[in-house]
Amino acid sequence: VQLQASGGGLVRAGDSLRLSCAAPRTILSVFWGLDLAWYRQAPGKERELVASFNRGGAPRFTDSVKGRFTISRDNAKKTIYLQMNSLTPEDTAVYYCNSAQPPFYSWGQGTLVTVSS
Predict the structure, then answer these.
(1) Measured between alpha carbons, how far is 4 from 22 in angstroms, rounded to an integer?
(2) Residue 115 burial (10 A CB sphere; 0-12, 13-18, 19+)
(3) Order of all β-strands in the sheet with 106-107
(4) What digits encode the pLDDT tens for the residues 92-107?
């Protein structure tokens, strides 16, 4: 099972971008109960957790994106989103969606977000 992120692109610092991640057919029936998350991997760095749903609690965000990024979901469309505002060059990375905790699904190709200064 692989979740594929989409919506990346080349933007300028200060711009906004919304990423989407649609659930594959094989997990549609359980999508509503899944804690999914957004991750990113910048060049030369390890993959990091960016934002995640938290078992019914408030979503969690890594410190560097708090106040700028929001995570949302549309259970009817079986899709999660990452709204990214006030982007900076430090947000440049390949973004992935996956489970918020192990076990993880297969990592997809991700979607590249490039922020120019």
Answers:
(1) 7
(2) buried
(3) 69-74, 79-84, 17-22, 2-6, 106-107
(4) 999 999 999 888 999 9
pLDDT at position 71: 95
Give the span between the Cα atoms of 109 and 99, in whole angstroms: 15
pLDDT higher than 90, residue 26: no
Does pLDDT of 34 surpass 90? no
State the average pLDDT over residues 52-59: 84
What DSSP line would sit under the chain, residue for residue? Answer: -EEEEE--EEEETT--EEEEEEPPGGGGGGGGG--EEEEEE-TTS--EEEEEEETTEEEEE-GGGTTTEEEEEETTTTEEEEEE-S--GGG-EEEEEEESSSSPPEE---EEEEEE-
What's the CA gap between 30 and 53, in Å, rounded? 15
The percentage of the chain sitting over the pLDDT mark of 70, rounded to a whole number, equals 100
Token pair belonging to 45:
């760095």
